Amino acid sequence: MATARYCLISLLLVGAWLLGPTQAHPDVWIISTSELIYAPDGSLTGVRHAWTFDDMFTRGALQEVENKTKGVYTSEELAPLARINAESLKEFGYFTFAKADGKRAKFDEPVDYFMEYRDGALTLHFTLPLNAPVRPKQFVLEVFDPTSFTDFKFAEKQPVMLIGAPASCKLDVQRTPMAGSPGAKASGQTVLDHGEDGDSGAVFTNRITVACP
Question: Which residue ranges make up each domain of the chain?
Fold first, then answer.
């Protein structure tokens, strides 16, 4: 059965204890895709993430999983690992931070979470319902790790999708800039003001902006 050894949060906490915040660097790499989910009345109800882990994390995590067929891992066999990772993300705000018309939006605990193994990589799927549906003119979502121990990158193709959004809504996606580039300096002053709190991960933020006139 999967243990907490390859829980994402456990790795982050161990890394933070060993290196300290001033020496933070990525230990886990994630390719992220996100879906913003809208209700029939046009209100935004939540965010659905799919996070694909790097080879090293995948190999280590699978060592903790009992499977019947070599090289094949079913959703049922991966369920304990999915539960450990999804439920433990709360301590870091699920690495998902949002504002609706300038006011911080809060998320409930994740639902519909599961893991899949495909093409040699583990992917964690989960949905974060908003604490209350919103219909803002501007919704801003940022995906990043405040400790910098996890490197998030949006997928190259269709990194973000609007599901059921009003036709008038427009989507803008800002990817993580390369370290040391002019864009990296500018993105440190995020709309969610994480940089003012000393969160080094905010310098490399993936930002989603949805404008609905």
Answer: 4-211
* CATH 1.10.287, applies to 4-211: no
Q: Which helix (H) or strand (E) holds 186?
A: helix 182-187
Distance CA 169, CA 212 (A): 4
pLDDT tens track for 167-184: 999 999 998 764 433 444
Pairing of strands 103-105, 96-100: antiparallel
Neighbouring residues of 151: CB distance < 8 A, sequence distance ≥ 6: 26, 28, 29, 30, 145, 176, 204
Of 16, 21, 51, nearest to 159 by C-alpha is: 51
Considering the entire predicted model, what is its pTM?
0.82
Q: CA-based Rg of the chain, rounded to a whole angstrom? A: 17
